[in-house]
Amino acid sequence: MNACGLDFGTSNSAIGVVRGNAPVLAPVENGETLIPSAVFFDYETRGRILFGASAIETYIGQHDGRLMRALKSILASPLIDEKTALGSRMVPLTEVVEIFVRHLKQQAETFAGRELTAVVHGRPVRFVEDDDAADARAERVLAGIANKVGFRDVAFVYEPIAAAYHYEESVSREETVLIADIGGGTSDFTVIRIGPKRRLRADRTGDILANDGVRIGGTDFDTLLSLDAVMPLLGMGTQLVEKNLPMPNSLYYELATWSTINFTYTFQNERMLVELVAGAREPEKVARLLRVIRERLGHRIAFSVEDAKIALSEAGAAPLLLDFVEAGLAAEATRHGFDNAIGAKTDRLHAIARSCIRDAGLTPGDIHTIFFTGGSGRVPAVRNAVIHAAPQAHATAGSGFLSVALGLTREAQKRFA
Questions:
Q1: Is residue 312 helix, strand or coil?
Q2: pLDDT (tens digit per residue) in 55-88
C-alpha cells in the first residue's frame, strides 16, 4: 500500500505506514518515531539543512544559522503570506513547511521501501476560529504542500477523530468518549461513540456526535510563562525616565512567541533598544534584552521556558536558567504562578469541552471516558479544566504524542488499501 498517515504538529510530528495489517510509525530521527517540528538552516556549512532534535542541538551549539520552529502555526496566521531571510535570499514561510514535510515523506519512504503517493493528513478542528474562509485556505495551503512533495492523493481527518480510532482498538465495550487532543498550537475535542463492533463499520459518520476546537495549545502556555517569569528580567514593566511610561510591550510579546522570535532580530530593534537602555529606570534589565536581540538568544530562552513548563507538570517549582544571557541569571517558575498565568486559557478549554458535549446532545454524565492525547494534556491545570467538563467520566491517556499518527495511519489503510 502506497499510503501513509501524517501528523504534522506544531511542536512534534510523526508519520506512519502499514506493514502487514498493522499501522507502524516510521523512524524519522535516530531511530525515534517522533521528531520536533524544527528546521535549522546552517550558514556555517553552506546551507546544510537539519531537522528535529539535530536542528535544535546545532542551534543551541551556537552555529550561525536560522532556526524555525512551530511551523504549523503559520498556516492559521497572517504569516502564511510572509517570507523569511535565509542567508541572502527571501523564502516564503510555506516553503519552509514544504521542506520539513518532504523530509518526513522521504524518511517514511526509506522505512517502507516504496514510494508513498497518498496521505491521510491530520488537521485541527479549527485552523482559524470564527473565519471559515481562512480555515479553508489553511487546509488548501497544506494540501498544496502535500502535492508539491509528491502526494497525489490527499485526504484530511480531524486529529481528535484519528486519536479516537487509535483508542478504539484497545476497548472491549461500547463507550461514549470525549477525545481531548491538547497539542502545541490547538486544542481539539470530539465526542464519539466507539466499540469493538463499531470499528468494523466502513462509515463512521453516525458515531461522530460533535467536534469543536480552539487555537490554544502548548506554545500559548510557553508564551504566558515567559511573559510572567522571564520578560520582567529583561525590562518588561520597567519605567522610562523622561516620559514616566512603561517599556513598550510589543517586542516582549514577539520574543515570547515561538513563531515570531526570528522577527525580533532586526537592526531597527537594536537601535531602538540602545536608546531605551539610556532612558530606562532599570537600564541593566533593558541591556539584557539588547543582548538577547544582538546575540539572537530568543529561541534559547524559549527552550528554557519549555523545559520549566514540563518540569512544572511534576513539581511545584522549577528553575528557569538564563545564564546564557548573563552569568547567574535565573528565574523561578512556580506551579501556582503558571496556573494563574494560563487561567484564562484553561477556563476557555473547559468551556469548549462543555460546549462540545452539549453540541452532541448529551450531558456531562453521558460521557464514559475522557481520552487525552497531545503533549499539553499533561499540564495539570489543563487536565483538571477538561476533566471538570465531565467529572464523572474516567480519564485516561494514550501514546501522548503518537495516538493521532497511529489513528491517521489506520485511516489511510481503510481509504487507500
A1: coil
A2: 999 988 877 888 888 888 888 777 777 787 777 7
Under a CB-based contact definition with an 8 Å cutoff, are residues 223 and 73 in contact? no
3-state secondary structure of 107: helix
C-alpha cell of residue 112: 517502507
Whether 409 contacts 4, CB under 8 Å: yes
Q: How is residue 311 written as a grid cell?
A: 518540569
Give CA angle at 203 (202, 206), nearest 5°: 145
Q: pLDDT tens digits for 339-363?
A: 999 999 999 999 999 999 999 999 9
Cell of 24: 507502524
Structure-block grid coordinates of residue 27: 523512524
Residue type, 242: E
Alpha helices (H) along 156-282 = 159-168, 218-229, 250-255, 267-279
Q: Where are the beta strands (DSSP E) in 255-399?
A: 317-321, 330-334, 369-373, 394-397
Give the mean pLDDT of the chain. Answer: 92
